Amino acid sequence: MSRQTKVYFSATLEAALAQARKELGPEALLVDAGPAPIQDGTAEGYRVVCELDETPAGPAPKAPSASQENSSPPCWEDLSGRLGRLENLLEALAGGAGGMDPFPGAAVLQAELAALDFPAGLARRLVIASRERMAAAGETGGRPASLRACLVEELSARITFAGALGGGGRPAVIALAGPPGAGKTSALVKLAMREGLARRRPVAIVSTDSHRVAASEQLRTYAAILGLPFALAETPAMLRQAVAKHANRDLVLIDTPGFSRMEADWADEWARLLTAAPGLETHLVLPAIWRSRDLVAAAGWWARFEPRALLFTRLDETGSCGGWVAAAIESGLPVSYFSAGQRIPEDLEPASLARLEAALAPEPARTAAAGGRP
Predict the structure, then answer these.
(1) SS3 at position 27
(2) Bridge pairing between strands 309-313 and 335-339
(3) How many domains would you assign to the chain?
(4) Residue (of 47, 117, 126, 129) closest to 88 by Cα position
């Protein structure tokens, strides 16, 4: 097999892709694309690497011999990872490559969103809406500084950040629900310290998790350390009694079991209980390190609990924000808190646009914000 590999440089990705397609034709395979390295004082630009199969048509290849079959197989894991990255990149560049994008940098921004794990369709819609914002601002004489600033404006219009816990009633009964390992118990303890001790609000802790070994005992230990009342409610009746017992408290925090997809019946049983409890507000806890498609799917699966807000954990373990942003936009739920570390309660913060702006900043700015960590 004979392949021709060619590299194209241009001021924009769209122009480089157009040049490659014009010379090599539609059969060319996109191998790589991205910013070109700046050397010897050259201007910034972009490079596209394409391959073209030049093998002439002929008879079908012969079946491999026994020695060939026993030879070392290709590294499918590396190939799969490479194809996955190219899939995101191709989808991100699809709009701009056709000449539909008059704004320099729009295709690059869309590719950056793909690298941050934004679903391709959502990234495309966001960039288009940001271009429209930029054009509208220019027409009125108030042109924003950059397309990236318009993207932040667009996201701030699509994502709601929740305010204080509870709807003003007493007690505010908050249940944390979510998949196993999402960090519900840690988030609950942080909430108890932040909303209870730090703000001098009387808090009670209730665990309904008798499924995991020693789960309730762990929470009981935390409650004892914090000096807060604790109750274990293994049945719906016990949960109602526990909430009624602590009706004089400002805040009752409820930890729930983590249900897997195979435990839908059990999840439905608890969902009916929680949604029927008057005044109870459920926050869905999801780990930000999950892929965007998994977070969006999880938000849909856990909709049976009728959550009022989303709480994302483990933000310190990922540099990608596309997953939690997609889950928030697709579900239409506000985001209440971010948990980004193990410290209690310092690593819990009310959700705000500031963390999103930091995550969307160009790479040098993100590194500086992280204290120089890569």
Answers:
(1) coil
(2) parallel
(3) 2
(4) 117
State pLDDT tens for residues 91-122: 555 544 444 445 557 788 888 898 899 998 99
The bridge status of strand 29-35 relative to strand 46-53 is antiparallel
Span 215-251, pLDDT tens digits: 678 888 888 888 899 998 887 788 888 888 988 888 9
The domain that holds 46 is classified in CATH as 3.30.1660
CA distances from 133 to 19, 247, 358 (A): 30, 49, 21
The closest of 310, 294, 302 to 275, measured between CA atoms, is: 302
Phi and psi at 304, nearest 5°, equal -60, -20
Residue linked to tokens 């793909």: 114
Cis peptide bond N-terminal to 73, omega within 30? no
Q: Phi then psi for 16, rounded to 5 degrees?
A: -65, -40
Q: Tokens representing 177?
A: 């629900």
Q: Is residue 254 part of a domain?
A: yes
Say which residue the tokens 């196993």 belong to. 180
Structure tokens at 120: 């391709």
